[in-house]
Structures are given as C-alpha cells and as structure tokens.
Design a protein that fits this description.
The structure is a homodimer of 126-residue chains.
Chain A (H helix, E strand, L loop, with lengths): L2 H11 L2 H13 L4 E2 H8 L3 H13 L3 E6 L2 E6 L1 H13 L9 H10 L18
Antiparallel strand pairs in A: 1-3, 2-3
Helix pairs in contact in A: 1-4
The structure holds a DNA duplex (30 and 30 nucleotides).
DNA sequence: TCGATATTTCCAGAAATATCGAATAAATGA
DNA sequence: TCATTTATTCGATATTTCTGGAAATATCGA
C-alpha cells in the first residue's frame, strides 16, 4: 500500500465536515444517501458539500452512483479497512499494543473468549 | 473520544513528511530518537522538521523529552491506538468488515486459531 | 416544451499550512 | 568564560485549502 494513497485518505478524513459526512454514510450502508439528504442532515450548503464529497471520492473513501437526478453516495468500506490495516501495521511493530482497538473489534464481534492478557501487558505507552 | 481530537490526529498524519517521521519513530520504540537523527535520516532541514514535530506533538502522537542538549522524540502508541479504535468503531457498524485489518493484526500475533470465516463473508464492499 | 428539482462547476476572496534561511536559545565541555 | 553542538523561534514567502453565491448542467414530471 502506497504511502501517498494513505496520506490522501488521511487528509480526506482530517476535516470536521468530511469526517461527519463519512459518519453519516456509514450507517446508511451499501444503500447510501443522496447528496441532498447529507446536505440537509448536516446543514451544509450544496456547493460546499459537493466540494467535500469530491475530496472523499478522490480518496476512494466514498463512491458515487447516479440514480435519476440524484447522486447516491456510499461509504467504501474496503478503503477504510486498508487505512486501518496500514495504521495497524505501522503502529507497534509486531507487539500487541492495541488494547482499545481490540476492545473496539470485540464490541463488534467477540473474537476473544477470555479477555486475553494482551490488554494487561499494555504497550510501551508513556 | 472527541471527533475534533481525531481530526487533529488525522491531520497530523496526513502529510507525507509527518507520516515518514512517525514511521521512523515507531521502530525506535520507547527509546526514541533525537530530532537531529530524524532530520538526518529523512534529509529534512531542522526548522522544517521542528515545525512538523510540533504538529505531531500537539496532536499527541509523539512525545518529546529533553536529554541534555538533545530533545528525544518517541511515538505515543496509545494515541494511535485510540485513532485506530475510533476508525474501527466508525467503519462497519457492528459488522465485521475488516479482512485486511484482521490480517494485519494476525500477522502481529495470531489471535485466531482457525482462519475465521469473517474473512470470507466480506463486508458490503462495492 | 417548460418548470421544478438535484447537483456540480465556476469563481474569488479568506484562511490555514508549509518551507527554510537567519537569528536565538539552551546545554555542554574545554 | 567561550566556542561548539543541538534545537527552536522568527519572519517572509509560497502554496494549498475552504467557503458559498451565482451560473451551468442534468433529470424528471406535467
């Protein structure tokens, strides 16, 4: 995974408005939302929203499809997966130092039966 | 976790140079590296490096400590853990849609004995 | 065809970021 | 004390990003 793609994706999410847009699209799932619905829900003027959606699209974090006179936007989950994977690989160098992340993933689906001692041995945090 | 902190951290990493700085600090571990060593290794003029280190510090992604006339910088793993956890929680809404991430974590330590079918059922990627 | 609706593009000003030489500060050791 | 080393701050400039009104484009239903 090329670092410049990662930078583009990080930059796309590194904006209050765009992060909000993405977070609105996530629960909408594959069905997505038309631009207007996003504009209304977040109270963003259409041209401004369009600008931010273009950034997210360029970064591959959202996908647009035309449907009649609507343009439906959906979160591209594979892209954010790649982003998370990149950060994970570039974080702890083979050490398990991700108690919060493991909790987050555990919340979504319990992969660990017993609360692994990974959580206890904490990474080198200072 | 406040979204504006997340935005600050994403923005801090969303720059070619700063991402490189962070990636140099990660393998250095808790011992860290003096600013000069980073400057030399990445070929960045001192004032420019100082500017970027300040951003990373402000975002809480790196920590500085004075040691004689050196300033030693270390990666703050807990911070990037929080970042990854945030993205994880805001990605798939309870669905396990993170094959790449699970692979990345598995590489670091095999948490799953059998290659869970999570990988197969892929998320709603389009 | 026409009017209404949905969205994007154009544009220009405002704001925020990035770069790096020169100057400055702080710690060290002779 | 003084020269040296390490790092930050200052300052001037360049570049990029953000914002939203006005105009353009596209689709639809009547």
């Amino acid at each position: 995974m090329d670092a410049s793609i990662i930078v583009t994706r990080l930059a796309a999410l590194a904006h209050e408005t765009r992060l909000a847009i993405f977070r609105v699209l996530v629960p909408a799932g594959p069905q997505g939302l038309p631009a207007g619905a996003i504009s209304e829900r977040l109270g963003i003027p259409a041209p401004t929203l369009s600008f931010h959606l273009a950034q997210l699209t360029r970064a591959g974090l959202v996908v647009a499809r035309q449907q009649g006179r609507y343009v439906i936007y959906t979160a591209h989950f594979a892209a954010i997966d790649e982003l998370i994977a990149y950060l994970t690989e570039n974080c702890c160098q083979g050490l398990a130092c991700l108690p919060k992340t493991q909790t987050a993933m555990g919340k979504r689906r319990p992969i660990l039966e017993k609360p692994s001692r990974l959580k206890e041995e904490a990474c080198n945090d200072h």
